[in-house]
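The aim of this short unit is practical: by the end, you should be able to scan a pair of folded records and say something sensible about each. We start with the first protein, listed as its amino acid sequence and then its structure tokens.
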Amino acid sequence: MQEEPAAEAGFSFGVGHGKGERRGTLHRMDSPLSQKSLPNGPRPPRLAFVTVPLLISLFYNALSLLTLPFLGDSVNTLLADMGQATGQAIAPLDAEQITVVLWTSFVLLSGIILLLYFTRRGVLEGRAWGRVASMVIAVLSLLAFPLGTVLGVVMLIGAFDREVQAYTQR
């Protein structure tokens, strides 16, 4: 298959006549698949201190999202337990209110999962915003005792490493 590049647009035009080749196929030469978007040089060893906790948090929140549809009955039980612990009477929610609570939880968890995914991807690609977002996530994770605290400390150690800082200055 012969290719004739179109200089101004960055396209190539396939002119192959062989078996199985299509005529007139237009290919984008600067597509994400043809060029690497990764920074030059090897990844620092402590980059895993940032990316692995993000991946663990991603899977943990995805599992929480999968169990969400089965939590409808336990919302009122949780409210009753909270009322008993505080000594205040909390009225149980009706079916419509439980649906609103579950859909709101679904939207929030989906947003958190997307944030974790794109932050991890940004850090792996060496983006500065990915490192900053991972530090914010790490600080907020410190409040979720005990697993979140451990993950947050590990992420902060990795995010403040000099090699990781240099890697993510793109």
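Turning to the second protein, read its sequence before its tokens, just as you did above.
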Amino acid sequence: MEYTGQIDVTTLLGDTNLIKFVQNTHDLINPNIILMKGGEHFVVLFIAPKVNIMMSSLITAFLLILEYLIITKMDFFRNRFFKSKKLNIHLNDRDLIILRVLLDGTDRFSEIVMRTGLPKSTVYRRLLRLIDQGVVEEQNDISGKKYKVKDEKIRKLVKGY
């Protein structure tokens, strides 16, 4: 009885260099068939039912493919397995002016308008846009609404900009 293990490495690698990689490591992985169908690459391993050979061959194949991923596809590997939060914020000059005023300690709408010198409608629209993007948060207080920069990372970015 033979064990057939099929590894779809195209979804992991998305690279045509896989055939060359497998050919160079033929003795270690020992694949009997390499199929290419529809642009997809498959490595099919036919291994005898001996447990030691099967386990060592599968582990070797997995480690070699993982090593190939890490070395040649570091960004792809990182994005696929380690999800990171990407900051996707579009700021223009007026947004930066408002954010700098907020970072200086101004938190009331009338003070923001006075310190920026921008029209009320512009400040209002920009604040709503920044709130929608999650950059600024609005707090209702007894004396009115207060605005503040929401995230410490955004504070550092604005100060450095």
